[in-house]
Each structure stands twice: as structure tokens, then as C-alpha cells.
Write a structure and sequence with these properties.
The structure is a single chain. It is built from three helices and eight strands. With 147 residues, it is an alpha+beta fold. It has one domain (10-143): Molybdopterin biosynthesis MoaE subunit (Aldehyde Oxidoreductase, domain 3). Strands 1, 2, 3, 4, 5, 6, 7 and 8 form an eight-stranded mixed β-sheet that branches. The radius of gyration is 16 Å and the shape is globular.
Length: 147
């Protein structure tokens, strides 16, 4: 798999429930799969210094970020017995309650998908140059600090 070109994982705006549902539906024909696991990152209405987050505007160094996503993907396939994996991340404004990160892994066995998903999500948070600007209800903003 090392010769594969990095995919563009970015989608403009929120990741819809229809998109997520359709992604799951497409895997029903893959009969070697015994387990799926999904991570959905959702924008929270955090309160910071008395102000409430209304949305996050995501930006990225897209070429570098797609390369990092690719490296994480390849590393996960080497480390875990995965049948397939999909990663999608939002760019632009995503409102509170909407999905900004969708990671979907599949394997013949259930224990693999739990371990792999945690590995992938933690690597994304640590290594991928995606940045979020928190937009508050009063329209002020600040750069998000990952926690």
C-alpha cells in the first residue's frame, strides 16, 4: 500500500448524517467484514470566558494534512488487520451539534476495530495540521486549543 497517492479527506462544511449512513450502507456487500467502528467528532457548545461557542471554522495546510492522514492510514493498515478505513474532515464553518470528523474502520474481528480507531483518532489529533477557529455567539473568535 505504500505506493498509493494520498486521498483528499476534506469536505466543505459539516459531514451529513446521510453521507455517514450511505458510507455504512455501502459496506453491506463486503462479506469478509465482521465488525465496524465509527468515530464522529461533533462541535461542542463550549463556554469559554463566559462566551459560548456557536461554530468552529476549520482550515488546514491541505497538501500537508492529506499527507499526514495518508501516513496515519498506512500505519494503521500495517499495525492492524483492517479490511478498510475511511477518514473525512470538515473545512470551513461547522455549527455546534454538527459532525466535523468521521473515521470509519472495518475488520474481520471486533477487537481490532476498537484498537485501530483509538490509534487513528489519537494520531489525527496529535499530527495533522488542521486548525479550528472558535466562533462565539457574539461573533468574536479565537483559535481552538485541542484538549
Amino acid at each position: 500500500m505504500q505506493n498509493k497517492k494520498p486521498k483528499n479527506v476534506f469536505q466543505q462544511g459539516a459531514i451529513s448524517s446521510e453521507f455517514i449512513g450511505n458510507s455504512i450502507y455501502k459496506h453491506q456487500t463486503k462479506t469478509s467484514i465482521g465488525a465496524h467502528n465509527i468515530f464522529l467528532g461533533q462541535v461542542r457548545a463550549d463556554e469559554i470566558d463566559g462566551k459560548t461557542v456557536a461554530a468552529i471554522e476549520y482550515t488546514a495546510y491541505e497538501a500537508m494534512a492529506n499527507q499526514k492522514f495518508h501516513e496515519i492510514r498506512e500505519s494503521a493498515f500495517e499495525k492492524f488487520d483492517l479490511t478498510c478505513m475511511h477518514i473525512y474532515h470538515s473545512l470551513g464553518a461547522v455549527n455546534v451539534g454538527e459532525i466535523c470528523l468521521f473515521v470509519f474502520v472495518s475488520s474481520p474481528r471486533r477487537n481490532v476495530v476498537f484498537e485501530a480507531l483509538e490509534f487513528i483518532v489519537e494520531a489525527i489529533k496529535a499530527d495533522v495540521p488542521v486548525f479550528g477557529k472558535e466562533i462565539f455567539e457574539d461573533e468574536s473568535h479565537q483559535w481552538k486549543v485541542n484538549s
